Amino acid sequence: MLLHIPDVLSAEQVSACRKALDAAPWVDGRVTAGHQSARVKHNLQLPEDSPVARELGALILSALERNPLFLSAALPAKIFPPLFNCYREGQTFGVHVDNAVRQFRDTGFRIRTDLSVTLFLSSPDEYDGGELVIEDVFGPQRVKLPAGHLVLYPASSLHKVEPVTRGARIASFFWVQSMVRDDAARTLLFDLDTAIQQLNARNPEDPVAVQLTGVYHNLLRRWAEL
Ligand code: NI
């Protein structure tokens, strides 16, 4: 499933992030790249242990905890502390797949990357190019979202970032280990949850909604790994 989640951060939160990031110490993005991806990665990143990255990462994690669409779609068990990247004119990240397991450098915190997330922090009119292109069963999906919006997609997908030809593209990126590892099973649960919420909105007393809620939880009980 590839899902666009709007308005994860407010305009005020985006501008606070951008102010902090403008003054932050960017380094070569290859610091976190695997062997294959290092050859195609040309961008800037904040070091994992940068205080700015940790402070803004905490802001993003707390916004995600309050976002019902993210929680329903990702069913997160663990979230990697958000990282930050910047593509300036001419910078790009060629086709690659994200590492299956990521370890946070200092703490040893480790996750299996089921889902990849890109949270856009630049508005699309600030730069040209820079689309995130994700290979999907329906063909390549080109993603460029308003600042404060995110895209959630299976970390198993091949993906790339097109060269930026004007301006700068700033984003946060991170990974989620889901309670439901299998993308197809997780997508079924998300579809079922969405349908139940629509039934509940129409008639909160509907006994069918209660029955389907039971089905949802019993499937989750069957599939969840904590
Ligand atoms: Ni990637």
- The number of helical segments is 6
What small-molecule ligands were found?
A: nickel (II) ion
Mean pLDDT: 95
Alpha carbon gyration radius:
18 Å
> For the terminal residues, how far apart are their CA atoms?
21 Å
Helix share, percent? 25-40%
Q: Structural class, from secondary structure content?
A: alpha+beta
Number of strands: 17
Low-confidence stretches: none
The largest β sheet comes out as: 8 strands, antiparallel
Query: Hey, roughly how much beta strand do the residues contain?
Result: 25-35%
Cα shape? globular
Order of helices and strands: EHEHEEHHEEEEEEEEEEEEEHH
Topology readout:
Layout: E1 3-5, H1 11-22, E2 27-28, H2 35-38, E3 41-42, E4 44-45, H3 51-65, H4 68-74, E5 76-79, E6 83-87, E7 92-96, E8 101-103, E9 110-112, E10 115-120, E11 127-129, E12 132-136, E13 139-143, E14 150-154, E15 159-161, E16 164-167, E17 169-178, H5 183-202, H6 207-223
Antiparallel strand pairs: 1-14, 2-4, 3-7, 4-6, 5-17, 6-17, 7-15, 8-9, 10-14, 10-17, 11-16, 12-13, 12-15
Helix pairs in contact: 5-6
Bound molecules: nickel (II) ion.
